[in-house]
Fold these 4 entries.
Entry 1:
Amino acid sequence: MAATGSRQTGRIYKIASAYKFWIELDGMFVAGFTEASGLEAETEIEEYREGGLNGFVHRLPKGTRYPNIVLKRGMTQSAILWSWYESTMNGAIQRKHGAIVLQSADGSEFGRWNFTDAYPVKWSGPQLNASTSDVAFETIEIAHNGLKGVFTR
């Protein structure tokens, strides 16, 4: 199978599809999720005007912020996610390290985003409506202390 992707300085880079991924918590496969969002990092800046230099403003980095990761999956009879969130509600925060792992088309690991010291801050149950045949989903939102991308070559 030929690799697809962009060519830069004589190399061809594979392109991954966004629909093949899994979630790990503390090194163990947790569940198949249908959606994962919040893979973001934003470096805040501080603007500094230097006296006598009116042509530009210095833009200095202050720090990096990471929004919460939001994971969505079809409801199952497993209470693992609810139990994890319930411990947070009861004041017994269980921090976990985790990863969102992206797969190549052949099922091998394409790359991953590792996150640290994560704990759930919100759980949402399904939207129930007897007039539709939609799948029941649960969503968990987790706070964390940073992302590190690791990509295979």
Entry 2:
Amino acid sequence: MSKLITSLSVVAALVLSACSTTSPDVVQRGDAQRLSQVQDATVLNVRPVTVDGSQSGVGGVAGGVTGAIAGSTVGGRREGQVAGVLGAVAGAVIGNAIERSATREDALEIIVQLRNGERRSVIQAKGAETFNAGDPVILVTTGGKTRVTRAPAVAPAAAPGSNS
């Protein structure tokens, strides 16, 4: 029985760790092959923040089931029923806490200034790119979600009539 409880806990942890991410390096399937709006901007400020974890209920359910099974094995029939209920409640609380912790992300708040002078703030998970004040960036907006990425180097356009 102990091995079963351990196995259920491991499965729950793996499921929770596979939850959604806000990483700018990961594109959601629904965003692939969609036209995105792109805006040029300049970074004004970057600061680290933490995106709080979510509680979808999966952790609570998994913890509750695990706690109920573990508690029901205690003592006789009556004691097992009471311990099963208490185990379910404790397991649900612990499962929610594990889910919230597992889905918490280190992120950045990036404040940018658009070419028209407007300022915007975007919070996104830390990705492979680093940003500093003064860096040229682009804001890519798809389906209402915006991410910040480094602006690509642009070669100067050839003058009209040149033989280049």
Entry 3:
Amino acid sequence: MSKKKSKFKFHIKRLEPVRDKYMFTDNRHPEKGIISAVLGCISVTTYVLAVLFTYNNGGEALIQYAAAGFVAAIFSVAGLILGIMSRTEKDIFKLFPNLGIILNSLAVAFVVFLIVLNFVA
């Protein structure tokens, strides 16, 4: 007697405990990284609003917009320093430090762009 091989194969999977879904770690979100990301959000938002309000004012920047931009520049430099400091820590999640470095670098680059644009024009 020979066994016939069936075309249909049933593959029954054994139920095994799934340990890949959970990650047990001692990593944490650094406070300096969170502050850096918040300062970056504040700086970028301030610059976007200053440019938008200046555009709505017919291209004339009021002194309040310049003061807000100056404070945002200070925030962005401080946030960039905090982001770099927190990125060098060990056993951390790198989301907030990286986000802070990126946002604050954009804000600093925007300030440099405005300064260069002022001297060229």
Entry 4:
Amino acid sequence: MKQVILTVVLAFTLQANAQDDIKKELEPICATFDSTYTLEGWKAKSDQLALVKEKYPESWMPAYYYAYSCVQMSYFEPTLAIKDVLVNNAEDQLVKIETCPLTDEIHIMKALIANARIGADPENRWQKYGKIFDENLKAAKTINENNPHIYLLKGISTFYTPKMFGGGAKNAQTYFDKAKTKYDLITFTDIDKPYWWGRSTCTYFFGEIDKELNK
């Protein structure tokens, strides 16, 4: 019995050490997510994250952040075919991401991927992927209504939706206000609790809303 207990303790210790190693490798890469605004910048981060992902193939964390970097690259990439390849790369990570204990963030990543699909070709994709986007945000809210990503992503989607369909700056502001309120509750940047990303995006859209409303 004593040997069994020691074996279990050792296994947990090794697992904890591995988690710490992963976090240490991811932290410097992810620290500047909210100040990366170019395709080249995201490509550099994606390449780094790919290496961490290959090193720790069973962990959800590198897969999550690699998927996020691929989505961000897709927004800057001008060519539709390459956009789709990047979003495919993000979607391929879902098998690993679905082992994340924060199930609301699994839905956030699915919504983020659906939003990237729409962003690549809005006219032809909004109907199919808009439904997937909304369903996953609703699921995330049911799990954790304090997740700021719910309101950030809904705000971005609303901002770019034509006014005749309920979009526009004025309607989007409500979601960004809510996102800011939720971000204000977050005082950490823990790699295994990825609620912090997107804060600067929220601030950026407040500026864009002001521009639109004061035209």
